[in-house]
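Quick one, C-alpha cells below:
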C-alpha cells in the first residue's frame, strides 16, 4: 500500500506499508495471528525513495559484516540475503528458519549473532 506525503519543505514522497491483511503471510508468517495483527496495526512505513536513492558510501566496504538470513523470509528473498552477505565478505552468515521479523520470532538467534559479532570485533 502506498501513501503520498508532503515534507515540511514542500517536497513530496510516497510511504509504503504492507497491506494489513497480507502482513502475516508476507512479513511475519512464523508469528501468531495476534502478534502479526499488532505488527500490522503499528507498522512504520518506509519511504519509496529508500529503494532508489543513490548511496555515496557503503559501510560494508570497510566495516566487518555479520549476516542473518531468514530462510522463510517473503520480504527479502533468502538468496538475495546470501548474495549480499557474500558480496560484503561477511565474517559470518547464519541462516535460521524465520520470516522477515526474526527479531521477534527468533530473538535468541539474533542475540547470539550480535554477541558473536561484538566478541569477535577488533578495532583496526
Amino acid at each position: 500500500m502506498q501513501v503520498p506525503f508532503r515534507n515540511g519543505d514542500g517536497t513530496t514522497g510516497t510511504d509504503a506499508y504492507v497491506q494489513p491483511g497480507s502482513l502475516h503471510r508476507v512479513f511475519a508468517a512464523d508469528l501468531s495471528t495476534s502478534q502479526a495483527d499488532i505488527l500490522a496495526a503499528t507498522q512504520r512505513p518506509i519511504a519509496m525513495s529508500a529503494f532508489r536513492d543513490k548511496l555515496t558510501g557503503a559501510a560494508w566496504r570497510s566495516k566487518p559484516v555479520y549476516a542473518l538470513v531468514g530462510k522463510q523470509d517473503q520480504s527479502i528473498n533468502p538468496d538475495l540475503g546470501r548474495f549480499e552477505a557474500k558480496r560484503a565478505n561477511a565474517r559470518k552468515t547464519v541462516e535460521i528458519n524465520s520470516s522477515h521479523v526474526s527479531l521477534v520470532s527468533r530473538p535468541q538467534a539474533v542475540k547470539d549473532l550480535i554477541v558473536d559479532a561484538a566478541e569477535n570485533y577488533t578495532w583496526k
